[in-house]
């Protein structure tokens, strides 16, 4: 890495020599989508037994106005992906995915900051002895080209994301519906398919939240979690036993150690701490709590995405539309949102999924998307919620 992206956390075990790699085919490119939350006054919460304490939510005009604090949009930095492998050393033959950040000339200073931050976050999180961390993509090394591009090499744990899974399954559902009942010659096939999909989705969510919990336990926020930032090693629902979801895209990760919170904010985290101040989080303890709750809010939007998109035909709903529906139209009153969705036959399977266990899915969503950041559950509590344990399936 260059002096611009050199960080103190880089470990000796990371492979930083470009001669140790072989670059393969171009896979694709993408940009980062930043979705952040807001925090109006207190309403309701999640009790110790996983129940919603006050489901009768009301919202003032003041709280609705805080929606304008949200920062939603795709950033200017475009990331390219290539496959490849390690050509020498103890990890010779290991298949990898290269994530390429453009140099300053194309991506500006932000691209270098993002590359440095991602490298620093992975080096900080990965275990010193085994180079592993729970449900998080494994960084193996990286290098800088003469043009200033930053190439980060990750172990190839899959080429599909949760967003890909959602799109592919919804398109397949549309094709099956267009073929009518002849598609399912066995009357039980539909039920089996839906049950298998529910199990697959819960396992994706458990892996993603487990990775987020690991990050929080190790003093890091993700800050851009969403369906595109969850990599999957399979999207075949019959292979759910082999599914291992992993979090990727740590370019906006934030260090929440108290020593870091007491210093001047880094450029990539300034917006987060502005929102924290607007929500009344002034001390280091409050800022840390706000940051963790902000990640939980984004994870709640991920839960909503995976509860809806794979169970609806293509074009019915997408992530941004769900967010607008919940935040804008229904102002985070998910009981009202449920009534709206239930009236639309195209969303019936999604509603049934969240209705399991007397509305356990809606209950969890309402808690994770609580307008008051202080009342959102921790990641470990989310994992223990009855909707997430799989017992309802």
TrEMBL record:
A molecular function (GO) term: ATP binding
Gene3D superfamilies: Transferase(Phosphotransferase) domain 1 (1.10.510.10)
InterPro entries according to UniProt: Kinase-like_dom_sf, Prot_kinase_dom
GO cellular-component term (any): chloroplast
Domain Protein kinase, first and last residues per copy: 66-388
Annotated PANTHER family: PROTEIN KINASE SUPERFAMILY PROTEIN (PTHR36796)
Protein name: Protein kinase domain-containing protein
Phylogenetic lineage: Eukaryota, Viridiplantae, Streptophyta, Embryophyta, Tracheophyta
């Amino acid at each position: 890495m260059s002096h611009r992206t050199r960080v103190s956390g880089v470990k000796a075990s990371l492979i930083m020599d470009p001669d140790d790699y072989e670059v393969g085919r171009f896979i694709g490119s993408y940009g980062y989508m930043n979705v952040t939350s807001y925090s109006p006054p207190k309403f309701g919460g999640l009790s110790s037994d996983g129940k919603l304490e006050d489901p009768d939510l009301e919202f003032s005009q003041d709280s609705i106005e805080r929606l304008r604090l949200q920062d939603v949009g795709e950033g200017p930095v475009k990331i390219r992906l290539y496959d490849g492998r390690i050509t020498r050393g103890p990890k010779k033959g290991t298949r990898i995915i290269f994530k390429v950040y453009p140099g300053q000339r194309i991506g500006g200073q932000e691209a270098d900051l993002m590359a440095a931050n991602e490298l620093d976050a992975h080096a900080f999180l990965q275990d010193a002895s085994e180079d592993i961390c729970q449900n998080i993509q494994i960084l193996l090394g990286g290098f800088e080209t003469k043009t200033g591009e930053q190439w980060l090499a990750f172990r190839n744990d899959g080429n599909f994301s949760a967003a890909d899974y959602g799109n592919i399954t919804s398109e397949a559902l549309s094709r099956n519906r267009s073929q009518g009942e002849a598609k399912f010659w066995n009357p039980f096939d539909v039920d089996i398919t839906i049950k298998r999909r529910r199990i697959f989705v819960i396992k994706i969510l458990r892996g993603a939240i487990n990775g987020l919990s690991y990050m929080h336990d190790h003093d890091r926020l993700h800050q851009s979690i969403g369906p595109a930032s969850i990599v999957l090693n399979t999207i075949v629902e019959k292979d759910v036993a082999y599914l291992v979801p992993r979090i990727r895209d740590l370019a906006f990760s934030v260090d929440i150690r108290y020593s870091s919170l007491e210093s001047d904010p880094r450029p990539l985290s300034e917006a987060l701490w502005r929102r924290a101040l607007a929500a009344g989080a002034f001390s280091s303890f409050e800022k840390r709590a706000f940051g963790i709750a902000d990640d939980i809010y984004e994870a709640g939007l991920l839960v909503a995405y995976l509860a809806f998109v794979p169970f609806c035909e293509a074009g019915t709903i997408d992530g941004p539309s769900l967010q607008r529906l919940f935040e804008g139209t229904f102002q985070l009153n998910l009981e009202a949102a449920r009534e709206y969705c239930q009236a639309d036959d195209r969303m019936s399977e999604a509603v049934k999924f969240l209705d399991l266990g007397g509305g356990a899915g809606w209950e969890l969503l309402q808690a994770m998307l609580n307008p008051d950041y202080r009342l959102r559950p921790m990641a470990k509590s989310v994992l223990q919620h009855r909707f997430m344990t799989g017992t309802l399936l």
